[in-house]
Design brief:
Blueprint lengths: L1 H24 L13 E2 L9 E3 L13 E5 L10 H4 L3 E7 L2 E4 L4 H4 L4 H36 L13 E7 L6 H8 L7 E7 L6 H12 L2 E4 L9 H12 L4 E5 L3 E3 L3 H11 L4 E5 L1 E2 L4 H17 L2 H6 L12 E5 H7 L1 H4 L6 H11 L4 E5 L4 E3 L5 H16 L2 H24 L4 H21 L10 H21 L1 E4 L2 E4 L3
Parallel strand pairs: 6-7, 6-9, 7-8, 11-14, 12-15
Antiparallel strand pairs: 1-2, 2-5, 3-4, 4-5, 9-13, 10-15, 11-13, 16-17
Length: 490
């Protein structure tokens, strides 16, 4: 497997080098030919004369007739703006001296050489950056894919003392489907608790009617203390009631396949991890929601090496999915994770960072076979949901602005360049062809179709809109989520 990884990565970096060479060659300055002379101004601008210093085979010969000469980048004309401002001029030869012919700026519409060269350098820099980033992302994606193949839940049986804990606020549509499939899987030594977090959609009434039939326990949340995010407060209360050796926090929009609890127990029984999380398959009701959701696995699998997320001790590599978090009760009591991150809307990443700071081990499982998530039924709900933590993922507002600009440059600029820069169509085509499968593979990793990669420009635009909305929320100092307003920094 290691040799296979090495071969794949060597080929990948080879393709990346080809990308860079191709992008550089498109803007390479041509060498002078027999008809192109290198000239240096020797007289004052008022005399409008220049001495010919030929760098071609014509050196030393008398010049005859009227010829066209091109000033190339090596010319030392910066002290003579009247000459330097013109990239191409017509000269009339007189012995060894050349005099400029009359130039009509409006009719010829000649670009200045300095401006033209600067634009070319900028374009070259942009293409080099684009292909460098795409190469790095492909390297991370392939490495993650190979590593991901070993992260399945084991297919055997074991029993551990388990508490399934579900915070619920306005989850009347999601909670019944989850509990109807989860409750029958619970065995002796297992329990399920639900905390109704001041729901307003009938969640509490449904629990009152069906909890006994399903064999689950539930309670109403106590008033939320100042400075707590609602979900963190609900999870903190759930953990206080739990009796299991392992605490498994599940979101209400998760769907569990038959056998999920058995496989999870088998893994928890054998693992050395302090925190276990899983990445489920993602379901969607509309194409626009699917494209926005696509940015989540794309960001994770092309920017974060999963092996580092599991093994590297630095909190900067922390990664966890709050839809499923499992932690031993003794570790929970020792670290008090939800209390420690009580003011954070991005509690899953903060908890993973907390575990790393305590030198704990994090394990990330492939949960596609056992878990399915149907979050955000509409595009508006999806934008609102991701807006609440988009800036938090980027850490700061300036970094969120930078990320937006980088996404526009890496994935949207090549499309614009293909239309408005005919000389850059080769680079633009290569960049687009590199992006489509990268987004498509990211979709497949979470159970969505590969062809979603074709819509990556729309996904990027929706992600930028979401980031801008999140930035506005954070700049205003208020984050709105599920009918509650949290102050800036929460």
């Amino acid at each position: 497997m290691k040799s296979l990884k090495g071969i794949v990565l060597m080929k990948l970096f080879g393709f990346g080098l080809i990308f860079l060479l191709v992008s550089a060659s498109a803007f390479k300055t041509k060498k002078p030919n027999k008809e192109t002379m290198m000239a240096e101004i020797t007289e004052s601008p008022q005399t409008c004369s220049c001495e010919v210093k030929s760098k071609t085979k014509a050196s030393g010969k008398q010049l005859k007739g009227c010829q066209e000469f091109r000033f190339e980048p090596l010319l030392a004309l910066q002290n003579y703006p009247n000459f330097y401002n013109f990239r191409v001029i017509h000269l009339t030869s007189k012995s060894n001296y050349l005099q400029p012919a009359k130039i009509d700026d409006e009719t010829d519409r000649l670009k200045t050489f300095g401006f033209d060269a600067t634009i070319k350098r900028m374009q070259l820099s942009i293409w080099v950056l684009i292909f460098t980033m795409l190469t790095i992302q492909w390297a991370i994606l392939i490495n993650n894919w190979l590593y991901w193949c070993s992260r399945h839940l084991p297919k055997n049986e074991a029993t551990v003392s388990l508490s399934v804990l579900i915070p619920a606020r306005n989850e009347r549509e999601n909670l019944p489907e989850l509990l109807e499939t989860l409750a029958p899987q619970l065995k002796d030594g297992m329990e399920c608790w639900v905390c109704d977090d001041e729901s307003e959609d009938g969640t509490e009434e449904w629990l009152a009617r069906n909890a006994n039939r399903l064999g689950i326990q539930w309670f109403r949340s106590a008033p939320r203390p100042e400075g707590w995010v609602g979900k963190n407060w609900a999870c903190h209360q759930l953990a206080a009631r739990a009796q299991g050796e392992w605490l498994v926090f599940l979101d209400a929009d998760v769907r569990c396949s038959k056998g999920f609890i058995n496989e999870l127990c088998a893994y928890l029984n054998a693992t050395d991890a302090h925190l276990v999380t899983a990445i489920p398959s993602l379901s969607y009701k509309s194409l626009s929601v699917a494209l926005l959701k696509l940015m989540v696995p794309f960001s994770v699998f092309t920017l974060l090496p999963l092996k580092f997320a599991e093994t590297h001790p630095h909190p900067a590599f922390a990664m966890a999915n709050g839809q499923l978090l499992a932690i031993r009760k003794r570790d929970y009591l020792r670290w008090q994770p939800h209390f420690s991150v009580r003011a954070n809307v991005l509690e899953d990443l903060m908890i993973a960072a907390l575990v790393k700071r305590h030198h704990g081990i994090v394990r990330i499982l492939d949960g596609r076979e056992w878990l399915r998530v149907l979050m955000y039924p509409t595009l508006k709900a999806a934008i609102d949901g991701f807006s609440k933590n988009a800036v938090a993922v980027c850490r700061t507002v300036p970094m969120a602005i930078t990320v937006s600009a980088m996404m526009a440059m890496l994935y949207l600029f090549p499309l614009v360049a293909w239309v408005v820069l005919p000389e850059a169509r080769l680079q633009a085509t290569l960049a687009v062809l590199a992006s489509i499968p990268m987004f498509g593979i990211s979709a497949r990793v979470v159970g969505m179709p590969f062809w979603l990669g074709l819509g990556y420009p729309i996904a990027v635009i929706l992600a930028i809109i979401t980031l801008m909305r999140s930035i506005v929320w954070y700049k205003r100092g208020k984050i709105v989520w599920k009918g509650r307003v949290y102050q800036k920094g929460l």
